[in-house]
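In this supplementary section we document a worked example of the pipeline. Step one takes a protein sequence of length 71 as its only input; no multiple sequence alignment statistics are reported here. Step two produces a three-dimensional model, which step three serialises into C-alpha cells for compact storage. The input and output of this example are shown verbatim.
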Amino acid sequence: MQNEWILDVLVDLRGYAQKHGLDALSAQLDTTRQVAAAEIASQMDGAPVQVDADDPWGGNDPRGFGARYRN
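The serialised model returned by step three reads:
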C-alpha cells in the first residue's frame, strides 16, 4: 500500500524522541502512529473509522475532540 511508509517514519521519530529523553513527544508519536495505522487500514476496506486520539483504546471523549471519521 502506498501510505504505509509513514508508519516507518513515525516509528523512527519515536525512537529518536525516546533516545533523547523527549518522553511526551514519544508518547504523542505512538498515538499518532496508531491513528495513522487505523486510517490506512480503513482505506483498504473502505469502512469508516473512528479514532480517538485522547484514548487510543477506544474510549469516548465527552468534549468531542480527537474523533475523526473517514467518508
